[in-house]
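debug: dumping io for the single-chain case to check the tokenizer round-trip. Nothing else runs in this session.
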Amino acid sequence: MHPTIRLVGHPISKRSSAELARRAQLLLLWRRRRMDLFDAAMFDEPAWDALLALYMAERARLTLSVASLAEQAGVRLHIMMRWIDYLDEQGLVVRAADQSHGRPGFVRLSDKGRSDLELYLSATLATDCR
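debug: decoded output
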């Protein structure tokens, strides 16, 4: 079960998947735009970038390899592997073996990861109404 998120005067309502996907896309875009003006080290959040990228990939019906996820998050592969370990421990992602190599080569959101991310995205949309 999710912890209750309270927004004063604005309950979180269920949003359409298109609204949530657009919000995730905007969050990724805004994060990248910050780096046009500020040092990227100020915004080093590879786990968050990975969750957003996995959400967008899922919406586009794409499967991301660990290597492509690292590229999208702008971090080296070994760093992304550590974050995937963490996200897996938290129950937010699921790894799938690369059948040709027999090692974890692909990653996707878990049901919990998707649900928690959609709850967060809905909350951010609810605050836009204020």
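debug: round-trip ok. Residues 7-11 have pLDDT under 50 and may be disordered.
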